[in-house]
Write a structure and sequence with these properties.
The protein is built from four helices and six strands, in the order H-H-E-E-H-E-E-E-E-H. It starts with 15 loop residues before the first helix and ends with a helix. The chain is an alpha+beta fold. It has a single domain, classed as Thiol Ester Dehydrase, Chain A (Roll), CATH 3.10.129. It has a six-stranded antiparallel beta sheet with strand order 1-2-4-5-6-3, covered by helices on one side. The radius of gyration is 19 Å and the shape is globular. Strand 4 and strand 5 form a beta hairpin. It binds ligand 3IX. The site of ligand 3IX has 24 residues, from helix 3, strand 3, strand 6 and helix 4. It is a peripheral membrane protein. This is Acyl-coenzyme A thioesterase THEM4. Keywords: Apoptosis, Cell membrane, Cell projection, Cytoplasm, Fatty acid metabolism, Hydrolase, Lipid metabolism, Membrane, Transit peptide. Belongs to the THEM4/THEM5 thioesterase family.
Length: 225
């Protein structure tokens, strides 16, 4: 199973096309890391309006430097592995994403998968706590990884959450997900979010149904697959 690594990808160790891929991923992750720092600084700053206008102009200049071909809707980038692997710009796991925490996914000691991340002020709902929608995103994503880890990539058709306690920001979090039952193309998945410091007290629990699209449907949905 492919894992999402640390914010800055490791130094390339392979040769040829693999090295080029690692270089591209490292560059995407490096930009993502700086953008997340910018996002965090942006949502925290109390700088004067003149400073904010100056920074906005600087950012406009940076956007103009991202020239060349842009990927089209539904195109699968060559740095990605789909389905069930690295997604550099995923809003949840993507090390290149400005908004992803990003969630780092590893296999669990027991069945299923584990995700680790820290939410920041950019992910805030109630002051000091994570937005409930972000909790849903973390769980939905990790549940998808649990399906993929079993060799059956699938899409969410239903997701039910219990919010038992607020999820603290700037606190290491432990997300868990595992497939509990399957019937043909339908998978039942459960998951939870807790803090690393208190892993047995779930703050959010989830139950979901995932379905692996039939092959014709999958080809229609993901023509680039
Ligand atoms: C082999 C190709 C694999 C293709 C790759 C597929 C997915 C890969 C995607 C990501 C995997 C990678 C990593 C995971 C990362 C992130 C996870 C994020 C997850 C998401 O963010 S994902 C976005 C939100 N998600 C949607 O956008 C789905 C909208 N949906 C549909 O596009 C269709 O729904 C579809 C295509 C899923 C199935 O369509 P279909 O035509 O293939 O299948 P069909 O309709 O026949 O249903 C088959 C059986 O599911 C049962 N069923 C249906 N709905 C149900 C419900 N609500 N509750 C309980 N059971 C339900 C039926 O009752 C039937 O059961 P039965 O067979 O027993 O009668």
């Amino acid at each position: 199973m492919n894992m999402n690594g640390t914010p800055l990808a490791p130094e390339p160790t392979s040769t040829g096309p693999d090295m080029e891929l690692e270089h591209r991923r490292a560059a995407i992750a490096a930009l993502g890391h700086e953008l997340r720092t910018l996002v965090d600084a942006t949502v925290r700053t109390e700088a004067a309006p003149d400073t904010l206008h100056g920074v906005a102009a600087g950012v406009r200049g940076l956007v103009a430097r991202l020239t060349g071909r842009r990927r089209t809707r539904a195109e699968i980038p060559d740095v990605d592995e789909f389905p069930g692997g690295t997604r550099m710009n995923s809003p949840v796991t993507g090390t290149g994403s400005p908004v992803a925490p990003p969630l780092r996914v590893t296999p669990s000691d027991d069945d299923g998968v584990v995700g680790r991340c820290v939410l920041g002020i950019a992910h805030e709902g109630p002051p000091g706590y994570g937005h409930g929608g972000f909790s849903a995103m973390l769980l939905d994503e990790l549940m998808g990884w649990a399906c993929a880890a079993e060799g059956t990539p699938a899409m969410t058709v239903s997701l039910q959450l219990g919010y038992r306690g607020p999820v603290p920001l700037e606190t290491p979090l432990l997300v868990r997900a595992g497939v509990t039952a399957r019937e043909n193309r339908t998978l039942h998945v459960t998951g939870s979010i807790a803090t690393e410091a208190d892993p047995t007290r779930p703050l959010v629990t989830g139950e979901a149904v995932f379905v692996t699209p039939n092959p014709d449907h999958a080809r229609n949905l993901f023509p680039g697959m």
